[in-house]
Design a protein that fits this description.
Blueprint lengths: L7 H38 L3 H14 L4 H13 L3 H14 L4 H18 L2 H17 L4 H13 L8 H14 L1 H14 L4 H13 L5 H13 L3 H14 L6 H12 L3 H14 L9 H14 L3 H14 L4 H12 L2
Helix pairs in contact: 1-2, 1-3, 2-3, 3-4, 3-5, 4-5, 5-6, 6-7, 7-8, 7-9, 8-9, 9-10, 10-11, 11-12, 11-13, 12-13, 13-14, 13-15, 14-15, 15-16, 16-17
């Protein structure tokens, strides 16, 4: 037997030094992984999804147990509409951290992208299961509750659509956050009950509640846009600007309101072009395709038909299924 020449005290010191060295290496490796994830998040927030993917793919290959890295990788693929890759990465994140409500919610959204693309009932059922799981894991996740409400309103009954279940979510949201409750109930009143006056009443209660963040105001602006009420839309935009004057979405909404009212079209053109030039394409922001459509409508109002057609074609390159652009472009081409 080979015996150590170190005494007990020296052996203990050597062991402690080795353990400290191992811990330091592990901590350093963890810090490097964290730094890479933060770098990818910055790229993601800037709309550089391909760059975020190029950072995260090697990272998950080396750190296959890091749920956060898989989550942001899945989010990045989702933003470029690569739903197969998004699902694969988000499934891994949800498996590694099965109690994380946000991971389960975004996996549901990724399933939704696949279900819409493939017109798949089986995938649609997965969407609802994921949203329900996200709510069960974190009842205060109001975005997941809104997702579940809208799924229950939009989906046919055969894949779990249910007005009653949607109303359950509305009531639960209202009990947690009255402002979000009014927004959720406005959707329910309009989509489930077809009561536009009731929906508008809920929207006006949001404005009366004086939210401290811009998102509720911008959601009310979207409502008034859909109802072709540019004056009310402008009021919502002004309120959003008071609480967040530098919100990058404001130029889009200002431009749309001006086009709807057919006023200050030169300012509207500037705003819509600024939105296109300065914001990334994000699934939770107004799409660049829609911004192109509104530019087309602006040019039509000015009698600039070739410029309008150019914008509609650009919109369809970004979103080939955009019906408004299809209809407006077809009408222009037929009237030549």
């Amino acid at each position: 037997m080979i015996r150590s020449h170190l005494g007990p005290a020296k052996r203990w010191i050597a062991t402690a030094v080795l353990a400290a060295a191992i811990a330091w290496v592990a901590a350093d490796a963890g810090a490097q992984v964290s730094n890479q994830i933060q770098l990818a998040q910055r790229d993601f927030n800037a709309g550089n999804y391909a760059l975020a993917i190029s950072t995260l793919e090697p990272l998950v290959a080396e750190s296959s147990s890091n749920a956060e890295a898989f989550f942001w990788l899945g989010r990045s693929y989702y933003e470029i509409s690569d739903y197969d890759s998004a699902v694969a990465r988000l499934e891994k994140a949800a498996l590694l951290d099965s109690k994380n409500s946000l991971y389960q919610q975004w996996l549901g959204r990724a399933y939704g992208g696949m279900a819409d693309r493939d017109r798949s009932f089986s995938l649609a059922k997965k969407v609802k299961r994921q949203f329900q799981l996200a709510v069960d894991l974190s009842p205060s996740n109001l975005e997941a509750r809104r997702d579940l409400e809208e799924y229950c309103l939009d989906a046919p009954w055969i894949v779990g659509g249910s007005k009653d279940e949607a109303l359950e979510q509305v009531n639960a949201i209202a009990a947690i956050d009255p402002i979000q409750g009014h927004l959720a109930r406005a959707v329910y009143d309009r989509e489930a009950l077809k009561r536009l006056e009731d929906a508008e009443s809920e929207i006006r209660q949001v404005l009366a509640a004086d939210p401290k963040t811009p998102d509720p105001y911008l959601e009310t602006a979207q409502f008034f846009q859909s109802e072709n009420k540019p004056a009310e839309m402008a009021q919502s935009i002004q309120a959003a600007a008071r609480v967040s004057p530098n919100d990058p979405r404001l130029p889009y909404f200002r431009g749309v309101a001006a086009v709807l009212s057919n006023t200050q079209l030169s300012d509207a053109e500037r705003d819509l072009k600024a939105y296109l030039a300065s914001t990334p394409q994000r699934s939770d922001w107004p799409s660049h395709a829609n911004a192109r459509v509104w530019l087309g409508r602006l040019y039509e109002a000015q009698g600039k038909r070739p410029e309008a057609a150019e914008q509609y074609r650009a919109a369809l390159q970004l979103d080939p299924k955009l019906k408004d652009a299809q209809i407006r472009l077809s009408r222009l081409e037929k009237s030549k």
